[in-house]
Every structure is written in C-alpha cells, then in structure tokens.
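hey can u check if this looks right to u? its 357 residues, i copy pasted from the old doc so theres a chance i mangled smth
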Amino acid sequence: MLSKIYLVVWGFCLFALTSSAQVVYYSADQFKILGKAVSDGTYKRLPDTMADKLRKPVRLLGNNSAGLSIRFRSNTTSVSVRWESLGNHRMNHMADVGVKGVDLYTLEDGHWRFVNSGRPVDKKTEARIISNMQSKEREYMLNLPLYDGIVSLEIGVDSLSSIGMPRVELPVCKDKIIMYGTSILQGACASRPGMAHTNIISRKMNREVINLGFSGNAFLDLEIASLMAQLDAGIFILDFVPNASPEQMEERMIPFYKILREKHPDTPVLFIEDPYFPTTFYDERISFEVKRKNATLNKIFQDMEAAGEQNIYLLHSDDLIGTDGEATVDGIHFSDLGMMRYADKVISVIYKLIDGK
C-alpha cells in the first residue's frame, strides 16, 4: 500500500515539475529541414545562387517557405514556436494561418497526425501550440508558411526535456516527388500549411515532396527545369497549365521536358490538365480558355508520344477536384476539400507509376 502511495506522489511531483518547467527555445535550423531543393540552411525554396538567373517574381516567390517543414523529436510536455515572417503578408481569400502561420504533426504508428496550429499575430509571433502532454518521446513535423517567408524560427520545449534530430527517417527522402506549378500548387488557399496538397501527398505517402509552385508564374521557366533536373527524383509532376498560355506551352513545354529527361532518362513525368473550376460552368471566357489550354497540352503530349518519348503520362482533369462545385474558395483556388481531393487523385497515379516505393 505504501509503495502505491509513493508511486502516486512521485507521479504527481513529476507532473508538477514538467508542467511548471520553463520553455527553452532552439533555433529550428539545427534540425532537419524537408522540402528544400537545395540544402543551404535557409528557409527559402530557391538557392541564392539562382537569383541572377530568375525572373524577379519567381525569385521573390522562391523566398516563400511553401512545402518546407522541420523534423525533430522531443519528450516535451508542450511545444511552442517563435517566428518572424519575412513580409507579414495578408490575402483576402486565404486564412492567415495558411499564409504565414505554422502547423504541427506527430507520428503515430507510421502515420502523421495533426496536433495544432500556430496562429500568427504580427510580423513576430510566439505561440504555444500544445500543452499538458504526457512526457514521452515523439517524432514531430512542423510545416512552414505557404505564402510568406521566414526570417527566424525557434522551437520551444520544456527546460527539463530533450530535443534533437529525428530518429525515424520519415518522410523518406530518396526518390523525391518533384512538383512544379501555380498558386494552387504553392498552397492557395489551404486553411493551414499542412493542408496544401503537396504536404498532404508527402504525409500520406511518407515521401519527401519538393514544392515548386510559383503563384501566377508557372510559365515553364527553363531555369526551374534545370534546378529540378539536379534533384533525386522519383517522379516529376508538372501542373503549369492554369498559368501558362498556349503560346508559352508551344514554345517551352518540350524544351522544359528535355532538360529533365537529359538527366533522368527513365523517371516518370506526369503532366496535369487545367482543372474545370466551378467558374468554367458559367463564365464562357474562362471556359473557352481552359478548353484551349488543355487542347494545347494534349496536342503537344500526343506529339511527344508519337516521337517515341517514354514514361510520360497525362492526368485528365475530369473529377480532379470533384464535380459538386464545392472544392474552391473563390471559384479557382482550392479549399481544404479541393486540396484533399486533388491529393488523393494524384497519389493514386503516383503509386501506379513508381509502384508505391
């Protein structure tokens, strides 16, 4: 009986100690950063060495941290985050948490489970994401802002706890999924970072995804193709049609593809049609433009097949985001529902093309 009382008292004391422990912050750059095309220790998607080679809009959008995440482990009972945004942006059709906030996941039986979000309050924010947890070691993944950059980022844990590099190598970083595209691919308009479809695909497949979405600027810049060609790619996914004009596709689609193919002769390349957005059912100009763009994509793709190109695939936009019209925020940019539907459709194709490795 005395031993039981001792255990209860000891457990209560241990809980009191851990729950009253001060928060200690650690710079996030000492942990594992996922989603970067080039590992240079920054929270930018594009390396500074490319700055002089890029159009200004692409260079600036490359400073956004879309698709980047921090992997770490800790036995803390609470997790806090302290960060400074690069631009402190706001958008009238996207939640601040998605634009410039963070969200946290933990690994449970090999699957990633959402914990909570860090909601931005200003250019500099300190947020307690979760408290009162049992003190046991967990694997964490912190997703970074989709439409803003990061000047500094720190992760706060109990002073009595440990924190370090992950022990579990998930998501797998070999044979990365390299995705190139538009504002939707960058993450518009997910409610929080983890709901961007590139992050959903990464979690569900437990494989690293590189997000090269450039809002309003997926014009098949050959400099981006050259960067993509340098990466350890299991598959290339090209979703540029919502931005690129038919003329740009006719001029650049094959040169863009050939840059990838030169370094990756056998890697699958998946092209995706422009979705039939809800607005296309009513706005005749938009409907005509979507049909014209998709017809151009299909014609060039068929020419590539006729020329003997192998391991190229085309995903048609039928039912890509459902047919009920409920998958967007503004008739074009995906809501969380649209992101989930798109991710599930693309995942089913990826598994077929790379055998779920």
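Confidence is low (pLDDT under 50) at residues 1-19.
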